Amino acid sequence: MTNNYILRRLRYTFDLSDSQMIALFGLADMSVTREEISAWLKKDEDPAFIRCTDNQMATFLNGFIVEKRGKKDGPQPKAEHQLNNNIIFRKLKIALNLIDQDILDMLKSANFIMSKPELSALFRKPDHRSYRECQDQILRNFLKGIQLKYHAGSAAQVDDADKPAPKVTATPDKTQEAIKRQNEVKDYLKEKEKNDALNPKNNSGFQWQPVNKK
After folding, report:
1. 131: which of 105, 124, 173, 213 fits an S-S bond (Cβ 3.0–4.6 Å)?
2. What is the pLDDT of residues 96-140, one digit of tens each?
3. Sign of the CA dihedral 122, 83, 69, 35?
4. How many helices (H) and strands (E) does the chain have?
């Protein structure tokens, strides 16, 4: 999973404008331009795409923490020059002020079940015997759970990357109903024409009524 992918997901989830994203970097003492933001947010196959480095992503997340939680007293945390999924997961947990049960519930909303010990292992120090690397699948579902919780309308719709293919059903639409009515009218006119030929009175003011079919 790339930093650019995560940046795109967070931008969408929290409806961040270019100006807001620039401000988040600024909260962590990094100056970025609108052109840089635009290049980072482009799809990987776009010729104008530029990779967001670990240091830039860490700075953005540090700014996100300051925006959500406020600046802590004393020296501010330095942005890492090397990131992994565990660090990104931890920064998002801090920014959104989540406890373990919040995260488990959010993962469950994304149809991903995880136990509390498994989750706790992700936040251990790397040299701890219970430390566990956060796989892409876990972080991806956590991002999806964040989207479902914080983005309006996401309970019924996920983004394009996770959206299942639409199902095609065979229910009749308005066009089919209209064709059915036209056929009924044609049948009626044919039956009336046949009846008129057998009953000349119908052409001189007699009102013909079709026979009800059982």
Report:
1. 124
2. 999 999 999 999 999 999 999 999 999 999 999 999 999 999 999
3. negative
4. 9, 0
